[in-house]
Amino acid sequence: MENAPASAFIPHERILMGPGPSPVPQRVLRAMAAPTLGHLDPQYLAIMDHTCAMLREVLRTKNALTFPVSGTGMAGMECVAVNLLERGDEAIVCVNGVFGTRMKDVMERCGATVHAVEATWGDVISLEQITAALDAHPRAKLVTIVHAETSTGAHQPLAGFAELVHSRGALLVVDAVTSLGGHELRVDEWGIDAIFSGTQKCLSCPPGLSPVSFGERALAVMDARKTKVQSWYLDVSMLRKYYTGGAGAGGGRVYHHTAPINMTYALHEALTIVLEEGLDARVERHAQMYRRLRAGLEAMGLCYIPKHSLHSLNCISIPAGADDAKVRRRLLEEYGIEIGAGLGPMAGKAWRIGLMGHGSTVRNVDLVLAALKAVLA
Ligand SMILES: *Cc1c(COP(=O)(O)O)cnc(C)c1O
Fold it and tell me: What's residue 248's pLDDT?
């Protein structure tokens, strides 16, 4: 056929050094190409169970209710919010960037009264601020905080948070979308009650799943609900019957929605790669690459915005005289490198360079430094 449309889409390969997605290893892409199975096929249930088991390892948790929500990181955020909150509940939400702001919006849409604890973008939230918020709002059912604020590059310390929050009878909810697989994260040891993440940041898997995990306290809160979860799709009381084979012993798998089969293969392979490297080695690699990039950027006179910087996301001020859009366009067109623009109040003021998962390498660090040097000259 003379005018037959081209059937193949073959994009130019990019070096993904923005706020996500991160580069995906060939092994993961190949795993996705395996034959699609039925979502109740024993072969599929086995790989899904193994994926959940590996997620527990990577999250360092024994929580039985640990599974990948269908959807990206935002689906995990909504899943945690809609299941833990009922209309009229109170919640304390830490807001120091885009993702805390979104969490506030999501929780308000659940009908909760949200009390924001705020810090300047780029700063982190202190234990004193949480204490004051809990004093002022003793009915708060939960406190949520972003471990890795991708919009500002701030790394939130979590030591002492769970003890404080639990002493007031509240739950600790953590957004770990940009920390899982790149930063130290210990769900059980740190007393985190509910957590969500994403696949396309430090796990180096395509976007499409959101790992979540709920501990005993969170389960008790969900079991004590007086009203139905307002989202049918994200209702954990139904989802758990599929992902964990029912709450009770011998419970069967019940169809809820069709699991994204080939995305599960991808996550399974990505987690296999994480565990082959080893969690400690992976965290250390991210730390080393961060130090290498930071030293290079600072030697060029570029400044980091956050005081406590993430290793997975480097947020720097755009130097005076540089044209934000033009620099990013030249990096993309001449070097194939994608970096991120500033968001919200940092739009036009910051660049965000991601060193996530498979992308956190000496090659990428030295390449982005050389490219930036050339483009800024
Ligand atoms: C990326 C990100 C999200 C949202 O994830 P999506 O996959 O874009 O839906 C939430 N929180 C943080 C901290 C993120 O970096």
Answer: 45
In the chain, what is the greatest distance between 2 CA atoms, to the nearest angstrom?
74
Domain span at 192? 26-274
Which mean pLDDT values do the consecutive 10-residue runs of the chain (377 residues) have?
74 96 98 97 96 98 98 98 98 98 98 98 98 98 98 97 98 98 98 98 98 98 97 97 66 88 98 98 98 98 97 98 98 98 96 98 98 97
> Domain check: are 208 and 83 in the same one?
yes
Distance, CA 171 to ligand 1 centroid (Å)? 21
Distance in angstroms (rounded) separating the CA atoms of residues 93 and 141: 11
Measured in Å, residue 74 CA sits from the centre of ligand 1 at 6
pLDDT confidence of residue 6 = 73
Work out which ligand 1 atom sits closest to the CA atom of 207: 7
- Same domain for 154 and 291, yes or no, is no
Tell me how many domains the chain contains: 2
User: Which of 256, 274, 292 is where one domain is finished?
Assistant: 274
In this structure, is residue 1 part of a structural domain?
Answer: no
Distance 373 CA to ligand 1 centre (A): 29
The answer to whether the pTM exceeds 0.90 is: yes
The residue type at 53: A
